[in-house]
Amino acid sequence: MPIKVIIPTILRPLTNQQKHIHIDGFKVSEVIDRMEQQYPGIKAKLVSEGNAHRFINIYVNDNDIRFQEGLATSLQEGDVMTILPAVAGG
Amino acid sequence: MNHSLQNCVITGPWENPASNFSAAIFSLFYQTSTIGMKIKDAHDGIDESGFSFVLETPVTTPVVCEVTAWDQASESNNVASENIIQAACGLMSVHGRASGKIQSLGLNYVSTLTAALALQGATAAALGQLRGLPHADVRISMVSAALLSVSQYLADATVNTTDENLPAAAKNRIPAPPFISSDDVVFELETLNAEPWLKFWTRLGISATLAGKGWTAFLLRYAKAIAPLPDELFHALTHVTYQDIAALCSQTGLSICPVQTMSDRVTDEQLKCEWLNGPWAFELTTAATASFRNNNNHGLPLSGLTVIESCRRIQGPLAGHLLALLGAEVIRIEPPGGDPLRGMPPLSDGCSVRFDALNRFKTIREIDIKSAAGRAEVMELAKNADVFLHNWAPHKAAQLKLDAADLADVNPALVYAYAAGWSNDGDSSFRLNAIPGTDFMVQAHSGVAHKISQACGIRGGTLFTVLDLLGGVVAAQGITIALLNRYLNHTGGKVTSSLLSAATLLCSEDFQHQYHFFETNVPAVSRFNNIYATKQGMLAIECCDEAALQRLFQIIDDGQIDIMQRLDEILLTNSAQEWVKLFQQAGIPAAVVIEDLADLYDCPQLRPLLNRGSYTQVTSPWSFQ
Lengths: 90, 625
Prior knowledge:
- The structure holds two protein chains of two kinds.
- Chain A is 18% helix and 30% strand.
- Chain A has two helices and seven strands.
- Chain B is built from 25 helices and 23 strands.
- About 1% of the residues of chain B have low confidence.
- Chains A and B meet through strand 6 and strand 7 of A and helix 7 and helix 8 of B.
């Protein structure tokens, strides 16, 4: 089941400058693993010690996965996975 | 008190300040008093366009600092004041985002920033002289200080990309912190991690999905000055007392701070002591030997000096940025892989423009400061540096064995600067050090939030990061003072400032009003100050004194009674631009209110202070001659 993944500018050097890619997967973790196969190095930017990296926000549609099931969050056909770097300042 | 510059003299128009500049002059008087400068009164040096003061040290030519409302290069003859500059430079716009209403901050914010930057500029010029430069004149304007304060928001508003935005559902909603309990206590919540946030709200019966939407909105505070939290979160708290909410915070790892009144704060003995001591705590020793290096690049006062910066977010990086604008070489230590905030949207040329706005002049060194090899690398850098600046959490410097004493072992002449959240003395037992010393928590605790709420008719402070920015300026100022002291008195050592000390500086007139400690007058409140809709655009008017108010009456007098009651209606007959022209001809401070920061570059009187690149950059607030 292909999921549309929106890639932030800072990670585009790893995706041949593609702004969005389509990756198969039924969970966020599966999508990330398959992304790693196609675009080596990207997983380390997204995952740290088994969780989404603190400075990376991953949304499924409009929902932050840390408030769902984390990397185990399920995906359905038509879902859009958005990766955004940290937005905090302060 | 910190008498770090007690052998210096400052001469300014303290006794008879024009009301447009009275807040800046008061703040300057207060700041110079707390570092022990001898204060002399000048009988001139002030007019409607600005004021000047003179800094003398035992061994330099007197430095004249000219402070104007508008930048001198813009050749603007317009009169201006605190709220006019807030309107014209976009501060009101940023402050108004959270409430949906453009309005003044209700603080003498630009005046305080201007005074701090002016004193820093004069101190830097004297330092430059000691290092072989001919600087005897420094210029700064209130607009340059104001633009500096919005530089990150301006970068965000002007970058030419729409690629990366937060989920749209989070926007266009007004509710924002602070929160209110069932027993009517107004308070702030803070956490830098999602987990405590999730635990806290789910314990209050909020779904994880809704808590997540709240988290996305909560994160927008620092970057966008908005926090459109779901109503359900506020509603959940209306059934719980403050005591129970505080207990829940304790259980879930969230931090809480009540919004305290200004009257509570001025009677707090500890804050009174901090006010008397001034924004900085200096721990300087006389064993150091400062080398008088020759200056040969840029001709700026700090060129040739090296600053090592290990800072995150806004306060510390802004301090480093200001030192870079004064000519220092700033080497910024970032963790391996770089500071994650480099990726904070929006980006241009692969770097966050908000990040770039404060870090574009720095050299980057990626060092794992927690490792033995990394620590050794930092020590080696510090050995040959003039300044070491950090804004680590309390205790971290000691844990890393990178505290002032550790670095003094390898470089006794080093100025070691700590830009803290709460504590001016770095006391690890200080109870507030247990909670994050972030802008909004310090606003709540210090009385700044309450002061803003009273002036603006809102529940709490501002989501415009006023304390991070002023805290950064104060940190850079403390470093410059310590560097001057090093050259004058052969000292090295530590200077600490904090967001709380910046907050106390911002409210120094409230303390003076209570204690009358310093021999100067508290600036008067403006006779008239408001924002109006017009036929086209919004208009800010501020009459600082009775004479200006009478001139306003004369202009709008249409022969009928109750003019002021009908002012709303009268001002709708012309555009804001037309009213400004009319009012300015009569010497009444007025400006078109900037509603969109992208419009700042189109203002001729601001353009000398802005550069248009991939985003609009704010240039140095100082010019030296």
